[in-house]
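Discussion board: Methods & Data

I've been asked by a reviewer to show the raw model output for two of the constructs in my manuscript, not just the figures. I'm not sure how much to include, so I'm pasting the format here to get opinions. Each protein appears as its amino acid sequence followed by a line of discrete structure tokens. Is this the kind of thing reviewers expect to see in a supplement, or should I convert it first? Here is construct A:
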Amino acid sequence: MSVEARQEEAGLRLDAYLPYRLSVASNAVSSLIARAYEDRFGLSIPQWRLICVLAEDGPMTQVQVVARTVMDKVTVSRAAQALTKRRLVARRRNTADGRSQVLALTAEGRGLHGEIAPLALAYEAALISGLAPEEVTLLKRLLVRLQSAAGQLAGATPRP
């Protein structure tokens, strides 16, 4: 009997339900990292993501950040405001579209990213230390496929 058939026969079991397992794992990892970023650098996870995206991709509008990070508009706006107050991010008028602003890291923001990036990589290394390199590669590939499938389902599913 297949796994799916056994689950269907037994009914929904939370611990065997993949969306639940993904959520619990994500929350555990996010909580661990959030504490480190908050304690050492005074940053929330959305603030760190914004810094990281701007460091990787360069200046961008908030709409572009929303699309890149899959964070909602309000979360990105609040993160940008907080980082602007700390002078880690600067806003400038978008010359291509005067209705929006472009966010960019300041020199201080780039410096902070340089401090945090090694810590982020160390956490990742510790988290995956019990996995073989091919398992890490497979896990990353499968997560991308799951995210893509979720996006397709979200677009195909009528909203109430």
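Construct B, same format:
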Amino acid sequence: MTRYRYHAVLLLFGMLYLTACQTWQSVSLDVISPAQLIEEDQPNRVRVLLRSGNELELENPLVEGDELVAPGVSIPLADILRLEVRASSGGRTAGLIVAGSVVIFVTGIVPNLICGPEGTPNGRC
């Protein structure tokens, strides 16, 4: 394998890793209550904006009575202004796939076209 093929393989693995793009998506509290969301979806992580203006990121949240509970934190549900959950972003994922494919083409295929399949120079390398 030539040096360029190693680059292509590393870029491919990097691209596969990055295709799992995720973003925070706000949940409309008019449609679903924080308690319903936590109980039904059971997200691993949520971001909460409180009436006081503080923003917290909570791991493994649970609803106990009228409070949102996470390790070391207990928040009354009435104090929550906004709730966000992690979700996949199709647009970002598609963009990274396209960008990764271009990088792989430029670093893996173009040098082989110029230098030959075995990396032997044809006068231009």
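Answer (T.O., handling editor elsewhere):
This is acceptable in a supplement if you add a one-line summary per construct. For B, something like: The chain has one domain: 3-10+22-115.
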